Amino acid sequence: MDTHRLPDTIDGCAAQRAVPFRRGGRLTALGAALERLFVWLRPWLPVAHGVMFVGFLAILFVPLLLDDPGAEDGPFDHFTVMAHTLLWGLWFPLAFLSVVLTGRSWCGLLCPMGAGSEWAGKVGLKRPVPAWLRWPGTPVASFILVTVWGQTVGVRDHPEAAAILFGSVFAAALVIGFLFGRGKRAWCRHACPIGLLLGVYSRLGAVEFAPKRPEPGGDRWTEKTVCPTLIDLKRKTESRHCIECFRCVGPSSQGGLYLKLRVPGTEIETVSAHNPSLSEVLFLFMGTGVALGGFLWLVLPSYQHLRMAVGDWGIDQGWYWLGEPGPRWLMAVYPERREVFRWLDFILIVGYMLSWLAALTATLSATTAASAWLSARLAPGAEWKARFVQLGYQYAPVAMVSLLLGLGGGLFDTLALLGLGPAAVLGAKGLCFALGALWSLRLGDRLLAAQGVPATTRWIPLLPGALGSFAIGAAWYPALFGA
Length: 483
Ligand code: SF4
Ligand code: SF4
Hints:
It is a single chain. The protein is an all-alpha fold. The protein has 2 domains: 24-202 and 207-261, no CATH class; 277-481, no CATH class. Helix content is 61%, strand content 3%. The chain has 20 helices and 4 strands. The protein has a two-stranded antiparallel ribbon with strand order 1-2. It has a two-stranded antiparallel ribbon with strand order 3-4. It is globular, with a radius of gyration of 23 Å. The termini are far apart. The structure holds iron/sulfur cluster (2 copies).
């Protein structure tokens, strides 16, 4: 049997197969070699998932069995420090950064949670995916919930909190898979907060899986597919749902999909042909805002002033419960480590993060709306809403860097552990941000060019976009360089 023979549903029809397929994109020989390598490795993926599953459980739960590390202990002195470094210093930031080079390779090749959810779907109830799960806002809400919850439980500082949060997300992946999986990854497609994040930024990536025999009609969700994330393969134009599992790829087949290498950013520069979506753009704005809030409440004096003022006011009202600690699954209550959040802290952290979310979403929506309006004046044609959605993607690089600095800030701690001084670490953060902002500017320019705005006047609608990037930079300044 030819192991590369694909099912009839995705292999081309006889007439199409008569015309030989020609590989597109850049570095085609490298793309073909990578494709052959990973298709050859594909039978071993369950082993990789099993190893990752055991490693993930060890990182989450072994620290709960150990005494706390000493203040001077490094990763090689104490397993808890090693687990923390692996989780926050390597996995989280590198999973982010890897999308620019390899797309969602983490999801398809290594993630134990997605593989577990798919397995649960094979043995589960196989119910139809409900409308609430398919709603585009579900993964956005899931991301915001998990990010805020991570802050209130102190996920980066307490191993118990990491076990509670990641253990709950893992359990949710298994339950959704068990109920609605049908042998696919309904969780990965519709609800995973990390998947949404990686999916949006995979649009920036250098790897795409493209149909060899594309059909018109645009991207669609379908259950009649070999794709675990329910992509209608022949109509696939966007990268965000593709987890790079290689199941639709047969190097010797004339149908199915193939691995295409491209210049990073290409998909966003031409996003109108790649199923742009308002929910994704709003996620870019909201995700950046909530990550910023999660960092700024720790460093801005305004948060402490607010806390004092609200605390005093609460006492005046006789609301003494505000000073009581809540349950550990909701907020950090670790007197042995001298950190005890009270209901006051919980309410204020949630409120502060959501306020930043609202403020940044409003700011970036306003700058994008202005860009779209100016673009429509300078190059009449497409409607304003379509321009707004396309131009919203210009913030993808700067938003990615924001999330890297906020949620994946452990990478910079790891750089410090490797011997980089504080000034060099600060320089690395500043450089990351500057590169992200420049890339955003470049994307704004390309998107406006695609909307037909002439080169001579393009700086006019580009200006609001640059102001938006500047606003993000200004908001991050206290977190990067001190208030
Ligand atoms: S979408 Fe989430 S659960 Fe699925 S593979 Fe990616 S990170 Fe893992
Ligand atoms: S498009 Fe292909 S490689 Fe991507 S997730 Fe679906 S089956 Fe896997």
